[in-house]
Amino acid sequence: MSTVTPRTQRGTRTRSKILAAAEKVFATLGYHDASIVKITECAGVGLGTFYLYFAGKHEIFDEVVEDLNRRVRMAMAEASAAEENRFAAERAGFKAFFHFTAQHPALYRIIKQAEFVSPGALRKHYSKIVEGYIQGLEASQQAGQIRVMNPEVAAWALMGIGELVGMRWVLWEGTEDSSGHRPEMPEEVFEEMMNFIDRALAPTGAQPTVEG
């Protein structure tokens, strides 16, 4: 047995509460020091309730990774969907990514743990992000908005830029507030990063048109 989908709204709320508690415990204590008892204590539910929805610690860890992945992809997709050109969409997507990571620094901490705890979940996390990225880059190439390039290589490179810049200026800067949020990405850092990306994507001999 892996994870179980609740049949009632109450069950859905309980499962979500356990998942949120697991995210907090894994991010705070790390996978090896975390325990199902600590997760249920954080969630305010009994041990038996945990096993109604999850088979064990490893299964809920994978579920936390998948849930964070879904939420960050949704945030980025919603932010960039309304933009009319690739450069504006890149800006909106990265803005949403950095805002999400400032609000949910557990994303970095848990994904780093996944390298050792669940390599399959780690690969799935990055692959899902890249799949959508490749599609967007391919469509932009066909529309002549960006230069011709290998969209898979470009997608991985762009994702790497965003992750490391976010680590340096979101995760490592300042301290978390009472809600567990970290400072937002400094505007001057964001603009410098986007200038670099805009020039990398611009068609040969053209200057990108960037809103903002």
TrEMBL record:
<keyword id="KW-0238">DNA-binding</keyword>
<feature type="DNA-binding region" description="H-T-H motif">
    <location>
        <begin position="35"/>
        <end position="54"/>
    </location>
</feature>
<keyword id="KW-0804">Transcription</keyword>
<dbReference type="InterPro" id="IPR036271">
    <property type="entry name" value="Tet_transcr_reg_TetR-rel_C_sf"/>
</dbReference>
<dbReference type="InterPro" id="IPR001647">
    <property type="entry name" value="HTH_TetR"/>
</dbReference>
<dbReference type="InterPro" id="IPR050109">
    <property type="entry name" value="HTH-type_TetR-like_transc_reg"/>
</dbReference>
<keyword id="KW-0805">Transcription regulation</keyword>
<dbReference type="InterPro" id="IPR023772">
    <property type="entry name" value="DNA-bd_HTH_TetR-type_CS"/>
</dbReference>
<dbReference type="Pfam" id="PF00440">
    <property type="entry name" value="TetR_N"/>
</dbReference>
<dbReference type="InterPro" id="IPR009057">
    <property type="entry name" value="Homeodomain-like_sf"/>
</dbReference>
<feature type="domain" description="HTH tetR-type">
    <location>
        <begin position="12"/>
        <end position="72"/>
    </location>
</feature>
<protein>
    <recommendedName>
        <fullName>HTH tetR-type domain-containing protein</fullName>
    </recommendedName>
</protein>
